[in-house]
Amino acid sequence: MASRRLALNLGQGLRKRAAFKAPSPLTRGFASPVNVGKTQTTNLKNGLTVATEYSPYAQTSTVGVWIDAGSRAETLETNGTAHFLEHLAFKGTQKRTQQQLELEIENMGGHLNAYTSRENTVYFAKSFNKNVPQCVDILADILQNSKLEESAIERERDVILRESEEVEKQVEEVVFDHLHATAFQHQPLGRTILGPRENIRDITKTELVNYIKSNYTADRMVLVGAGGVPHEQLVELAEKNFSGLPSTSPQTQAYLESKKQPDFVGSDVRVRDDAMPTANIAIAVEGVSWRDEDYFTALVTQSIVGNYDRALGNAPHQGSKLSGFVHKNELANSFMSFSTSYSDTGLWGIYLVTDQLTRIDDLVHFSLREWSRLSANVTEAEVERAKAQLKSSILLSLDGTSAAAEDIGRQLVTTGRRLDAAEIERTIDAITEKDVMEWANKKLWDKDIAISAVGSVEGLFDYARIRGDMSRNF
Q1: Backbone dihedral region of 37: left (phi > 0), alpha (psi from -120 to 50 degrees) or beta?
Q2: What residues act catalytically?
Q3: Cα–Cα distance between 278 and 174 in angstroms, integer?
Q4: Residue 418 pLDDT more than 80?
């Protein structure tokens, strides 16, 4: 669409010049004063950060608010509050009823959504460029003026309880919730996003209001725009709609706990269910934070271990040594390596699914043997393959205004600055096999592990046996 518009504009310009016989160098027509594709940031007086990536030829824009507060900002008693608030955000404000809010979004052909994670809460809207002021007004309204009516709270309580039941049926979600719970025992990061069912039943308006007062403050929020919204316009809209936000967060006990460096605990949790046809096992070491200098090295190492799914046609040829070995010996249905990062820690590991219930020990053993190999014997070829896959994955994930807004918001909330695509590419290109082996020696070799297993896991050996495979010599 951008090239078509450029061609049309250029053609119109040529016809006009021919009619008036006023020659002008063609090169001048391409000059532009805008910062195309660059991330611009401005801090308002109250501390709110405004960030944009302007694309002058985009017909739509995504605007959203990224908040440095999620389930990690809760106490044991209020766990689930952030997610509960996300549900109530669209149920009416002081200015708009739920019906008015829904009609307003529908009439502009827009899209309004929100999600909660362990460290962030996000509200965002996608619309035509002309409707950006209306979207910012709606976002400001639901963040600052939600009514939180008792009737809406009771309705959403039932909805969230049903959602909790659905999540409990998703094995992967259950495994990773248990993995966090055992790796970060009795700490905010180890709690689930939805919260326990007893909390969902007991959360009151008072707790919801207190969470907003404690966390929805300007210093912990970033207003992001990506697409056809100029930076200056979004700054003006921010000053108009968000200038009344409190500047700082109160130093509550929950806030102090959320900012405390969590301790990684080597441990395991097993939920045996012989009615399940598979064993579902996640194994992780303490990973890297978003700010860690080895963040991209961890991602390259993860890509070397790779992923595998025997249902795919290319299953025997998925690149990594482990996938080839697992396929040849029919050890697993699938596996997925992962590197999950948070503001001050992370989890790096592998998620295994197998119906070969008598060979679980072989699968775990050879997976961890591959981890040990990374400390001493990594080839240049596999590092280059992993780097190419990683760069492709990152760049493809930035396609579209919503993806760009997500990347900007997440980076600014967690690290305070955004790495552009070129900087990411240079950083990844600089990683060598020596860097990978040094990282593996530091983070994998003979390190404690957290294990979460669900399903037919009788064949999974005891923790000490598995832990012994973390320092296997060849």
Answers
A1: left
A2: 86
A3: 14
A4: yes
